[in-house]
Amino acid sequence: MPDSSSNIGKLYELLRTLAVPEERPRVWPTLLRRRRPLPRPMICLVTNDFEGGSPLPAIEAWLAGGHGRTVPRARVDVKQMRPDSVAIVEGEVREYELDGEQAKYPCLPILDKLANDISFCGSGMGPIRFPRYSTANWITRQRLRDAQADIAADELRSRLPRLLRSGSLTQPVQTLSGLVGGMVDKFIGALLSLWPVLRLWLFVSGVVPGLSRESRWFMNQRYLAPELSDDFLAFATRLTDPHRIRENSEQVSKLLVHAFLSDLRAAYTRRIWRPSSWRRTAYPVVLLDNVEEGLPDEGSPGANLLKWITEIRNETGLFDPLVVVARLNYAPYREELNELNALASHNDRPPLDEPRDGDERSDSEDALQRWQFEIADMRRNRFSYAWQLLFRWDAEASGPPPRINPGLARPPAPPMAARKWFVSLAVVVPLALSAVTAWATIPALRHPSCAQWPWTTGIAVEEHKNECIGYSADARRVFTSDDALITMQREVFAQNVIAEDRHQKDHRRRLISLIYFAGLTYSDDTKYSRGIVEELAGLAIQQRRFNDKQAPTDPLVRIIIANGGDGMGQATYVVQHMLKRLLHDDHGVFGVIGLDRSTVETQRAITELGDLGVPVVGTTLSADSLAKASNLYLQAVPSTATQAQLIADYVAGARIPDFGSEPGHRLFDRVLIYRPDSTGDIYVNGLVEDLGRELAKNRVDASVLSLADANTTADLSAHCKTNDVNRRTLLFFAGRNDDFATFTQNVAQQCTTETRPDVLAADTVTRLVADPDTMRNVPQGMTVRYVAKGAQAILGGKDCVQNQLDGTGRSGDFMDFCRGIKELAEKLNLPGAKPIYDPAWPGDRTAIAFDVVGLFASALGGSNKSLPSGDVPLDRRAAFLALRKDYSGITGHLNFAPDSQVASDAAIAILVSTGHDVPDRKLSCLLMHPRDLGNGCPDNTHDESEAWFVDH
């Protein structure tokens, strides 16, 4: 600490008290306390002899000794700041010359130097800018040519861009132009060229608080009555020469000083969002040397500056952080001068900003404490000496400069929350956490091949267990990499767009949204996506058919495609994590169709959907237990029990035709049922159980064998060699389509042509039979019998897909169906490329999907008078009740008995593929359910190589 007996040592302690508002700055206590700070008194050192030595250079050096963080400061020798030394010489006014009458405002040179020194003193607390003062200073220096107000305002407006122009703009623009080129460069240049125009408008108009701070301040401050001007430009014109001659020169000076103090106030106004303001832990100190009294009426520049600071503080009542130390050769008011030695020690003095009772009076010899008690009364009475604290200064009696403690001059460190490293962490850490959170919660950042952005509508996908699952309603997301499957999905999405457009134009046409739920991904090519392609084709054909209609009662169909993974292995996950949200948000979704295959996972998904109140209509599902999974489940094809009964009837009634070697004899005496070992396939389990029971009723010998044994051992070979397996033994394939080709190849290899048994497959192989490419894996010459659920449509044959039927005995819907197949093939198959969709006959899955969509359209369309009109929301349970009415489709009658959820009267048949290894292959019917007469097969579709005995 400095020697307390030394006047200059006491002066150092006093400056520490005035310049440092808080010895331990804290953010939250300051914000919670919300105490208005008290402006600092101006310290006036009164001396009789300017030549005796000034303490201000030593004080300036002491303030600069903070080692990296110092007090903002400026020192001016007022005696040397002569106004005429910087005044602009009057003369001829050139077009771009900035001039004015600075001689009438002698405070300008002093304020200019103070603003410049404080801005560039390098205090380590960040630069202090003076935008308001710089604007006022620039305007007062302008000399306009025309005295007429409107013309002068236009001239001033034309000069304002010079004030707003920044030299830092050129280099970044040139750098950016070097990085980009062409149209991008021109576009950026055009945008930047518009900014000066916009900036000038914002500056002059004052309409935007954040971007028009200076002009708004000028129009809201109290000096020169800005209310007399219509806008900022008119007010600024009054400050220019020669218009300023009509204004009060003292008011102009006060405006300049007020702008200077307001800039300091803004720099020290602490905001929680502006850490730089908290780093300023010391107020700026201004040292005015050699301040003379001046003439009685005019005063001197230094004396006037002290007077105007006092009057501005009294008149505005606003805080400013300026600390002034002035050396005077006169006493501004008649009172006894205070002694520096009488000041209390810095450590013993209470905080300066603590409130004091104005009615109390301190009898302390400490002049600062007395001033602290009296300042409230002096402000209310607007005393001219309210902010001036006079001390006697005698250079000879003050003693030599003391040994200074460097810590006393060093401002305190800013609060931790305001330090640059903390602010950097406060920005970097949330950004890093946000980035990590986004990385964890937004899959699009991690798996761009299978993800959607949060703002994407109509799509929800996720990569789960190495599969891209979810749902999509438009072409931005398609599933799998198979060309045919991708193309067919896009066709469905294209019809969605048309349907939505038709609905927007006519809200009377109800838009029915359905979720087509299937396993669209597969582990290898043996899984055959052709069955899904066939079903999507049926959906697209029906969509297109309704889009082409015009009547208000005709509904429109929108299909959302959902992928349940390979073999529907992730169906439940998709329902719980994706479809549940979709069904909650989109009340226009009236049902789920498809479901692909009868497995335990599919059954769970149906239960989940039923719990959500959503009707589910399976297209090719037939497992007996599925109806128990949900009360809102309907099945468009007969159950496995019906299929088993059909197979048993065929085996018991199949006979050698009259032209055979043993006419009328049974074709089959025995059935070997080959099934996979998997226990999770409820379709296979139910079919094998039902078939065994039905064969027993018909007294047909049957055995159940492992499909794995038939494919990997010499089981068939051993049987063939012992004649245990022969032409009168029927091998029934009760597996999935991906094992069928291997099974038939083993049959062909293990058994000779003479002993080779016939093969009948369950309806699962319809995926394979419909695809010529995959049928090449079946041995040549082998006749393939299989169960087909859409047999009535399949038997339309080549004439249907070529739209060459004569229409005799066919419904209008079937004719539309055949025409739709031809038009779809022509649209998707590009000339010279491999055909995308080129069926040899109508696929059973295509027809069933066509009928299921037709069922929804018939039940929920405008023709159903029991339902509200198309623009009224429809409850899903009401939709389910409407689905139970009879519907005649192209595959048969879809009618549901009151106690049944299965369309038992839908057509199902045993078909035989002959010549499947030749281009002109075709299918024939052996037995069809339901049947009224004979074998139930339509005319001209029965295979004559076999007979079927009715009364077996």
Provide structural commentary:
The chain has 952 residues and is of the alpha/beta class. It has 4 domains: 315 residues, no CATH class; 37 residues, no CATH class; 270 residues, Rossmann fold (3-Layer(aba) Sandwich), CATH 3.40.50; 189 residues, Rossmann fold, CATH 3.40.50. The chain has 33 helices and 23 strands. The strands form 5 sheets. It has a 7-stranded mixed sheet with strand order 6-7-9-8-10-11-12, with helices on both faces. The chain has a 7-stranded mixed sheet with strand order 15-14-16-17-18-21-22, sandwiched between helices. Strands 2-3-4-1-5 form a 5-stranded parallel sheet, with helices on both faces. Helix 6 packs across helix 8. The chain is elongated. The N terminus is likely disordered.
Summed up:
With 952 residues, the protein is of the alpha/beta class. 40% of the residues lie in helices and 12% in strands.
Attribute tags:
elongated, 33 helices, 7-stranded mixed β-sheet, ABC transporter substrate-binding protein, disordered N terminus, Rossmann fold, 952 residues
**Largest sheet geometry:** 7 strands, mixed
Instruction: Supply the number of helical segments.
Output: 33
Portion in strands: 5-15%
Q: Quick one: overall form?
A: elongated
Number of domains: 4
Number of DSSP strand runs: 23
Multimeric status of the protein: single chain
Structural class: alpha/beta
**Biggest sheet, spatial arrangement of strands:** 6-7-9-8-10-11-12
- Cα gyration radius (Å): 48 Å
Helix share of residues? Answer: 40-55%
Protein name: ABC transporter substrate-binding protein
